[in-house]
Every structure is written in C-alpha cells, then in structure tokens.
Amino acid sequence: MATERFALLIFLCYLSSRFADAYDPVDPLGNITINWDFLTIDTTYSVLVSIHNYQLYRHIERPGWRLGWAWSGHEIIWDVRGAETTELGNCSGVHFDPAHPPHCCDKRPVMVDLPRGAPYNVQVPNCCRGGVLSSLTQNNSTATAAFQMSVGTFDRDGGNTNGNPVKPTNFSIGVPGYTCSNATQVPATRSKVDERRHVQVLLTWQITCSYSQFRDGPSPSCCVSLSSFYNSTIVGCPQCSCGCPRSPSAPQCFRSEMHVSVLNFSENMHSFRDGEQSKLQALPDTDGDPPAPVIRCTEHMCPIRVHWHVKQNYREYWRVKASITNYDVVSNYSDWNLVVRHPNLGNLTQLFSFNYQPLIQYDAINDTAMFWGIVNYNEMLLRDGNVQTEMILKKDPSDFTFSGGWAFPRRVYFNGHQCAMPSPDQYPSLPNAAWGVRVSALQRWLITGSCLLLLSMFHVV
Q1: What DSSP designation does 401 have?
Q2: FRET partner for 170 with CA separation of 20 to 30 A, picked from 21, 226, 323, 460?
C-alpha cells in the first residue's frame, strides 16, 4: 500500500510539473484571443475573424499563424478577404454558378494570412502581413490580424430557423506550443465610430489559445553563458543544452571551419565533401517556409547563445555587456526580443543599442526587462551574426553584491523560449581574497550559526 501511495505521489508531481509549465509567471495573462464577429446572418453569414496577440513578449514569426477548425455541418466558404484557405476541398456535390465558385468546401479548413503587397481588392484592415504577429510590447499596432469570410449551408442551433449558427470545433492556431479552447459566445463586440456613436456586431464567438514550452519542443532552443571581470573563467552553455550532436532532437550542424563557404554554398558546392554537400543541397526552401536550422557544431548545439558579461564595477554603478549570437547559418531572426530577470533591473540607468521596457512590475518589485532591436539598425539578428548591448545599473546598497552569483540573471528568454542556464555552482566566483568583502547579514548569520553548531558538536564529543 505504501508503495502504491508513493507511486501515486510521484505521478501527481509529474503531472503538476507538466501543467505548471503552461503558466508563465513573466506573462501570467498572456494569450492569443480569436474573435468571430458576425456582421450579417441570413441564408449565408458574413463574419470578421480577428486574431489578437495579448502576449507581452511572445510573437508569431514566419511562416505565421495557420488558423484551423472543424465545421459542425456542411458549411461552405464562398468568399474570403484578407486571407485564404490552403485547400479547396471536394466541391463536387455543391451547386454553384461557374462565374462565382466557392472558395473552400473542406470540412477542416486551414486559413493563412495573405503576404504583404496583396491586391487592395482582397484586403481588410490588419491583414496581409504573412501571418506574423508582433508582441504587445514591441509593436501593439501589428499584434492583430484579421480576415472576413462569407459562409453558407450552415446549421443552426437546435434546428431552429431563427437560431444562431452552430459553432465549429477543434480550433488550432498552427504554431508549435499553442493549444486552443472551444468557441464560446461572449458579449457582442462594440466599436467606436466617432466621439458619440458606437456600433455593435450581431454575435461574437471567442477562442483562447495558450502557450506551453513543454508542448513546444523536447529541448530548449537557446542557452546562456557567463563571464565577469573578477574571474578569468568563462562559464559556457551547459553541454547538450539543445541536444547532443547526432541526436534526433539536435539540428543539423557542420564544422566551424566550413562556415564561410556555407554562406555561399551555391557557388562553393564543389568545396564540400559528399556528405556535407548532400546536407546543404536541401537548404533552399521551395514552399515559402523557413529552412530547417543548420548550425555550427558546438557542445551546446543551440541556434542561439546569450552571453552575460559583468564588465566593470564603479562606486555607485556597475556595467554589464550582453551579446546574442546566432549560430544558424541559414536563418535570420527578425523582430527578435530578449527577456531577462534580475533583481537590479529596476535600477537600469543607461542602455546602448537596444530598446528596453520593464515587463512586469509588482508594486516596488521590477525585476524583469524586455530588450529588442532598433528599427533599421539591429532589429534583425542575421544568420551567423550577433547583436550586443551594454547597460549601466545603479547599485542598491541593501542587496548589491558580486558574491554568490548575484550579478548574473535568474532567467533568460529569447523570442519567448526559456534558455538553458549553467548550474549556479558553476557561476564565476570572486577571488578568495575578496570572498568576505560583500557578505549580507543573512549570510553572516548562517555562517555564525554553522560555526556555533560545529563547535557544540566537538564540545559534546
């Protein structure tokens, strides 16, 4: 019986760890909300579908969102503006005017955004950005996408001719790590026309999609290395942070001496050995999707490495240099962002080359900051390239110290993915001579208590 209880406890702990990963303490209210706003309902209905990214730091990158669902009946999409379905489906049993064929007869349509530069006659407001959604912090004006469609041959609730359309099911956003709820009816959307008038749609359905890094992938996609001015040791990323070389979860990699030729592989294909040549011939993408990552072979095997260097110490300030290196030689990161948790970020005084905004503030606590690139300067992290910044922070005499790894970040996220960090016992330490220079009152109390305990033990013996 005791063994069964122990096994049950372990199982419950495992489940709790899985579901706890879906909760993000950095952005507890973040989600993607999808609204279906019904403009007209007759023999066909016209609906405006809007996708709102309410996440503070996670954004949707290329190839973008792919909104899918399952119809409850025999619905047909007759027309779409601002997006298009990936498949036409089987329309053999549908009667239509050849001059106006249906747009989609699929039971499980998948809708994708139109690319930039789409003709004006197929656009609606907030459409046509290739499925890319910015985070709220970086650019809230491009954190929304929309399309409008006309749907016919739909069923109504309860079979009532005056009832509302039956809701679709099995919604998905088509981005790894996200799961979506069923559609629920919410108060109809109201919008402001002018200073005195509001208009309201007939009916609104709402779907909420949440992110979990556990569902996103089996291993991280970035890692953190550390160094300091007071210790010559450079603590690298943990070994196999993103998968070990030649493991199924690790991306393709190549030896560092070949990286110059890889960037122009189409002109230098003859310089590779047969094995490397066949690997690189698969890099060009014919479907418009980003190519599979091909990175330089490293011990950590991560496409992205974030390096945190404690650079200088002043009387009232201290200085940090942060660098982000892209080890992927075929992909750029556009509109990248970096989120760092550190107790002294509330006293950030000066920042160079990056944009910055505090992410979450709980009363006087402000320990999370978001950084991103400057437009037309470094908002794109180029393949096999890097971006870097330096920041000056004001010391807080109540808790500032270089001992115990205090100067290094608690957590680091790149593009919404939590990065693997070294173990705290590996952090660069102060030289022995300086070990006692900055010891907090709590540390002194613990040291004193430990010494007294040891003395009492020896005394008893």
Answers
A1: -
A2: 21
